[in-house]
């Protein structure tokens, strides 16, 4: 009997040891996977952000204003850029977002009629149509009426979907030269900045774009300013969307745009109200 007990004792001790080690292992594993509640709360805390629809021709200054705003507040402004007509279609389809900043008032008025807009500020800057030609102005264009002369190959922003295209054709209508202009159009482009780049690529010999687009490429283009008596300039506004779910934050961005926007736009070649 004594021999049997002595033979069993090592077995029992081994079993006890296994249980003790398993207990220690479980304790250590729990500690390894138990999340830090404070850290988890920090990770799951939603990052504040705003969503803005912005005219393609305003890209550079608005990107800078958005960056300055994020640096000041920690709130990121997500931006989508397109021509003004496409932006209006986007927000009509999505019915979400916080900020609307197209290239001119006609699209603001349309959005306002549909009940999409709340508070608005502006003008942040002025959209100023100008005539541009390749360097040297080979056709010697001096005024807007010259664009209607036979042989002129025009590059224009789309007349229905861009703010600048709409205003340009209003001027043509006023001067009674729309039919001749339409005969001279070589191509319509999706945005005002593309007018300048298309001319530089050797397509066309005149076009209408925004003044700021000329300032970026003035070493490759000539400028002909349009007579203020017939030129139609557009104010660039900034508005809160009525379906924004963070209107206080959007209003704060609007105030920031009102204070900081004009200087940033002027730096990028836009004309601003003094």
Automatic annotation (TrEMBL):
<protein>
    <submittedName>
        <fullName>Molybdate transport system substrate-binding protein</fullName>
    </submittedName>
</protein>
<dbReference type="GO" id="GO:0046872">
    <property type="term" value="F:metal ion binding"/>
</dbReference>
<feature type="signal peptide">
    <location>
        <begin position="1"/>
        <end position="29"/>
    </location>
</feature>
<dbReference type="GO" id="GO:0030973">
    <property type="term" value="F:molybdate ion binding"/>
</dbReference>
<keyword id="KW-0500">Molybdenum</keyword>
<dbReference type="InterPro" id="IPR050682">
    <property type="entry name" value="ModA/WtpA"/>
</dbReference>
<dbReference type="Pfam" id="PF13531">
    <property type="entry name" value="SBP_bac_11"/>
</dbReference>
<comment type="similarity">
    <text>Belongs to the bacterial solute-binding protein ModA family.</text>
</comment>
<feature type="binding site">
    <location>
        <position position="84"/>
    </location>
    <ligand>
        <name>molybdate</name>
    </ligand>
</feature>
<keyword id="KW-0732">Signal</keyword>
<dbReference type="InterPro" id="IPR005950">
    <property type="entry name" value="ModA"/>
</dbReference>
<keyword id="KW-0479">Metal-binding</keyword>
<dbReference type="GO" id="GO:0015689">
    <property type="term" value="P:molybdate ion transport"/>
</dbReference>
